[in-house]
Design goal:
The chain is α/β, with parallel strands linked by helices. It has two domains: 178 residues, Rossmann fold; 143 residues, Response regulator (Rossmann fold, 3-Layer(aba) Sandwich), CATH 3.40.50. The protein contains 13 helices and 13 strands. Strands 2-1-3-4-5-11 form a six-stranded parallel β-sheet, with helices on both faces. It has a four-stranded parallel β-sheet with strand order 7-6-8-9, sandwiched between helices. Helix 3 links the parallel strand 1 and strand 2. Helix 3 packs across helix 13, helix 7 runs parallel beside helix 9 and helix 10 crosses helix 11. The two termini are 26 Å apart. The N terminus is likely disordered.
Length: 355
């Protein structure tokens, strides 16, 4: 499904216009002797309930930090106070459902939900619909049937296919520039291991499929040695890589990872074992991931614009909280989807390249 493209000017303009709009509507209503929408339009504060599937996920934590920056910037721009109620579900859908109930009881104007289980979003939607509270889902996309249940549901993310294709392109470009970097034993084939996220997460499935397909389409000779599920976690990836280094000594030349945390876990295991020469690629462009690329410990990653990502979530949430038309401030695909831009970041021949 196609989703939205970036609208840099609209989101920023929303911050400036929100306060002006409230004053204008209030003045018009006063002249007319009052109107039903005046109280909502003239709000001087908004409350946003945010539930994260886990707080120790590096990418999600980056988005949280950017959301907090967005709220501060919005307050400074508009004078409207923003209350962010942020909770961590710790990987438990039942906990997240209770958090949603609490947000609604606290009269949150809008919910921003990073679902624990994308297939169980119906429970969140049921509660939100009953309380008439709009929902901005992000990072984990509810199934299409759930997204189509209500016109007050939105989804913000990056294109998993684009992430995977760009990740594959890092390997393709590096192989074409210097084949020996990836084909260390010179046998004409790149032997790789694959570290995947959750088995049920749509991004994990798509990233796995299209990163490998991109290599095949480009004619890069590859052979899978092994692979495993590390659930996006650095520690789990490190444990798997440690096993593989013992089971497949001197065989793995490339580790393809669905995210940066798992890529860093693989690197941790390699460094503990004193193994060098294995190239590693990730996805997300987290702060530690970018640092690993810059230092040459990681060959490359795909970096999403986390500022734009968080701003899209916040702009939709703020607009819904103030009763504004979201479409005036941000370009959405099918009226509810927004995809954030991404770019390749790679380390080649002692140079840090941000494309």
């Amino acid at each position: 499904m196609k989703r939205g493209k970036k609208d840099r000017t609209g989101a920023a303009a929303a911050f400036r216009r929100a306060g002006i709009l409230g004053a204008a509507v209030l003045g018009a209503c006063a002249l007319a002797g009052g109107c039903k929408g005046a109280e909502e339009a003239a709000k001087d504060s908004i409350r946003i309930g945010i539930s994260l599937y886990r707080g120790d996920d590096t990418f999600i934590n980056n988005i949280r930090q950017e959301l907090e920056k967005c709220a501060k910037a919005y307050e400074q721009d508009t004078g409207i106070k923003v209350h962010l109620d942020i909770e961590e579900a710790k990987g438990n859908q039942y906990t997240q459902n209770n958090q949603v109930e609490r947000f609604i009881a606290l009269d949150c104007d809008v919910l921003c939900i990073n679902p624990v289980d994308r297939t169980a979003a119906s429970a969140v939607i049921d509660k939100a619909m009953a309380g008439n509270v709009p929902v901005v889902f992000f990072n984990r996309q509810p199934v299409e049937e759930d997204m189509n249940r209500w016109d007050e549901l939105y989804y913000v993310a990056v294109s998993a296919k684009e992430s995977a294709v760009l990740q594959g392109q890092i390997v393709v470009d590096s192989y074409r520039e210097e084949p020996s970097l990836l084909d260390a034993d010179g046998d004409g084939v790149i032997s790789y291991a694959l570290l995947e996220g959750e088995s049920s997460h749509q991004d994990s499935l798509i990233r796995t499929e299209w990163s490998i397909q991109t290599l095949k389409d480009a004619g890069v000779p590859i052979e899978r040695i092994t692979g495993g599920i590390a659930n996006w976690e650095r520690s789990q990836a490190s444990a798997l890589m440690e096993q593989w280094l013992v089971q497949y000594p001197d065989m793995i030349e490339l580790v393809i990872c669905n995210n940066d945390d798992m890529a860093l876990g693989a690197i941790d295991a390699m460094e503990r074992a004193g193994v060098s020469g294995i190239q590693v690629v990730g996805i997300d462009g987290t702060t530690p991931g970018l640092q690993a690329v810059e230092s040459g410990r990681m060959m490359g990653t795909v970096s999403s614009d986390k500022e734009a990502y968080a701003q899209a979530i916040f702009t939709i949430a703020a607009d819904k909280a103030l009763g504004r038309n979201v479409a005036e401030d941000i370009a959405l695909e099918d009226g509810k989807y927004y995809n954030c831009p991404q770019k390749i970041v790679k380390y080649i021949k002692n140079s840090y390249k941000n494309e």
